[in-house]
Specification:
Blueprint: H1 5-11, H2 42-56, E1 65-69, H3 71-82, E2 89-93, H4 114-117, H5 125-133, E3 145-151, H6 160-173, E4 177-182, E5 189-194, E6 200-205, H7 216-222
Parallel strand pairs: 1-2, 2-3, 3-6
Antiparallel strand pairs: 4-5, 5-6
Helix pairs in contact: 5-6
Length: 226
């Protein structure tokens, strides 16, 4: 698990490490409840936790961020899509697009429809965006900024899912691919920049499997907390 404690101590922000014991320790990213704003699923539970902490510690509600790896990255995508008015940005590792597992009997490798993790749930950006917007049909504001990383050698949650995430967030954020930057943030990683790079970036990690090692400093910088 990533550790952001020293960054939180240095910069004065709150960090929380939620987890689930359900479905082989995987967040529910498949049910109608979790994929609906205030639907009562895992996503709602996490948002209620955020709202409680914001109130208890008088935190800035405009500076709430989500991050996670594998199932945590899947949930990061879901949180930003279902609660775009709660989160300012997300950064995550080795996950799938919001809605990729919609209707699946579960969300873990043991319970899920394998179509999503195997990279066979392919849609256009417009199709992904339509599905995401249906999760919160009353929302008319701007969607959160997104940063997502995936390894080319990932055969547990296939690398093809990186492209699907980027298509979804490109459409939601209204930005197009502009350029690749090689060996960023380290050798073997390629940064994929959309627009001016302030709303959406992806990272392809050559020969890295499941999962891409967490880069806390990269996350904190993306959140504007560095």
């Amino acid at each position: 698990m990533a550790n952001y404690d020293r960054y939180a101590d240095a910069k004065g922000f709150i960090v929380v490490y939620p987890s689930t014991k359900k479905d082989n320790n995987c967040w529910d990213v498949a049910s109608k409840a979790t994929l609906t704003n205030n639907g009562g699923g895992d996503s709602t539970g996490l948002v209620n936790m955020v709202k409680y902490l914001v109130q208890k510690y008088n935190a800035d509600p405009t500076k709430v961020y989500a991050t996670g790896s594998s199932s945590g990255c899947m949930m990061t995508n879901v949180l930003l899509a279902v609660y775009p008015d709660v989160f300012a940005a997300g950064s995550c590792y080795s996950g799938v697009a919001a809605g990729c597992l919609a209707g699946s009997p579960g969300s873990s490798p043991q319970s899920a429809d394998p179509k999503c993790a195997s990279g066979k749930n392919i849609k256009t950006g417009a199709e992904w965006a339509e599905q995401a917007k249906a999760m919160y049909p009353g929302f008319t504001g701007s969607y959160p900024r997104m940063q997502t990383l995936h390894g080319t050698a990932d055969h547990f949650v296939e690398y093809l899912n990186l492209a699907e995430q980027l298509k979804e967030w490109s459409a939601l954020l209204g930005v197009e691919f502009t350029k690749n930057v090689t060996n960023t943030p380290e050798s073997g990683y390629t940064q994929m920049v959309y627009g001016d790079g302030t709303k959406l970036v992806g990272y392809s990690a050559a020969n890295v499997g499941h999962t891409v090692p967490v880069h806390p400093q990269l996350d904190v910088a993306w959140f504007g907390l560095a």
